[in-house]
Amino acid sequence: xxxxxxxxxxxxxxxxxxxxxxxxxxxxxxxxxxxxxxxxxxxxxxxxxxxxxxxxxxxxxxxxxxxxxxxxxxxxxxxxxxxxxxxxxxxxxxxxxxxxxxxxxxxxxxxxxxxxxxxxxxxxxxxxxxxxxxxxxxxxxxxxxxxxxxxxxxxxxxxxxxxxxxxxxxxxxxxxxxxxxxxxxxxxxxxxxxxxxxxxxxxxxxxxxxxxxxxxxxxxxxxxxxxxxxxxxxxxxxxxxxxx
Length: 244
Fold this sequence. Notes:
Largest sheet: 6 strands, parallel
Mean pLDDT: 95
Helix content: 25-40%
Distance between the termini: 10 Å
Strand order of the largest sheet: 3-2-1-4-5-6
Number of helices: 8
Order of helices and strands: EHEHEHEHEEHEEHHEEEEEH
Structural class: alpha/beta
Strand content: 25-35%
Oligomer: single chain
Radius of gyration: 18 Å
């Protein structure tokens, strides 16, 4: 089977994926790229030497029959293209997990761990019964589009609402919500000028114990709204799906 990959979005995450293919970390024979900003797609193509085809729209990308399609273009792209994408035979990786919360997921829909880990343990605990799960996210104001000069709590509430209010910054909350569904994840988003890393602390109380998970990730240098780990989590998932 041809190892052809479709990519929606040629921003920071899409570029890291392309670089991973260039360095043969991903066994991809051809990359088909669609970005609403064609200049971004052209820039990505010229940055690598392996075969890259630029699609002028989502339909053109789909007609190339990729084995896996990766969305890295934001929640709006998921909402706009989800029906067309799920009608294909491709395995689908969605980075913008916030847009998946209100959609009917199918077995071909996948989402990486993103900026966190331990989803296997959290999913196992959810099967047994989680009593309480909280996520506290701290980011530098710049990564949240803010100019706070002191620590400020920007939001306190559910993961679903956090993902809507911070569509670029809080996909991690949506990923947690999808992993432990139907348990509700309580979220705090804190703007903290003292920190330079995106920090996510997860505390879980479940039927047979407690878990504490903490991640402190460097923001992606080209996009402070996301962690570099998110792109590498997508690479790992893409590797797995192409090996099947």
